[in-house]
Amino acid sequence: AEEELAKAGWLLNVQLLTFGEKIGEGEFGDVLKGSYMGQPVAIKNIKCDVTAKNFLAETTTMTQLKHKNLVNLLGVVLNNGLYLVMELMSKGNLVNYLRSRGRSSVLPWQLLQFSLNIAQGMEYLEEKRLVHRDLAARNILVSENDEAKISDFGLSKSKLLPEDVTKLPIKWTAPEALQHNKFSSRSDVWSFGILLWEIFSYGRTPYPKMSVRDVAEKVQNGYRMDAPENCQPVLYTLMKSCWEDDPGKRPSFKKLREKLEKIKTA
Ligand code: ADP
Q: How would DSSP label each residue in the chain?
């Protein structure tokens, strides 16, 4: 399997990889800063039973995914487990970015720029017919020059890791996905609406003060979040369009990207 990975061009030379300080903690292990052939990288240790063969099955799609708003995977290292080597997103995840900086330092145009970045990345996944399933501000990373990119596509959602229904991110997941396991680009659009709400509320947790249990039930009965404080009505309208009960009535990511561009230039 290792040979196959090498042949596919995904196997990196461990000698050229240097490990630095810990910068994050993932579900399956730590995330470290590092460098590969002089390029700053992030290294994610996957501490679960992933075989190279399993991984290879997934790389077929992953090799074909490259977009400026998707966190780029450089390759893998097999060494007591699996290490994913990715481009370094030095400003960390979007939730922490927004919470730590706040309204006084992040201006509304920057929030709109982040939203547009994410819509562009999602439009690309939509074209590729790839469903993310876990779109949320915690899975958006920010680069040194303040560009937002989508991470965690293709791995946590793949067949690599078993689907555990009890672990679904309830507050981000569309009703039809929660109830009937119907995941689609349009259920990603629902999550994108929640993500917009997170962005324009500067990293607040959605449905503040509501328990996860309450949310599932209330949303099913038509309840929707209020607009974030100081949010432009046109943006709140856009969020609500993502939260249409009927997935077919929600906009596509292409449409969302177009609308965000219009709002940005208005
Ligand atoms: P998991 O999906 O396994 O929970 P994440 O991919 O969310 O793990 O990573 C956990 C944290 O590590 C992120 O919130 C972020 O702060 C940091 N991190 C992950 N990938 C990168 C990266 N490419 N560059 C910089 N930081 C990263």
A: -HHHHHHTT-B--GGGEEEEEEEEEETTEEEEEEEETTEEEEEEEE-S---HHHHHHHHHHHTT---TTBPPEEEEEESSSEEEEEE--TT-BHHHHHHHHHHHHS-HHHHHHHHHHHHHHHHHHHHTT---S--SGGGEEE-TTS-EEE-S-SSTTSTTS---GGGS-GGGS-HHHHHH----HHHHHHHHHHHHHHHHTTSPPSSTT--HHHHHHHHHTT--PPPPTT--HHHHHHHHHHT-SSGGGSPPHHHHHHHHHHHHH-
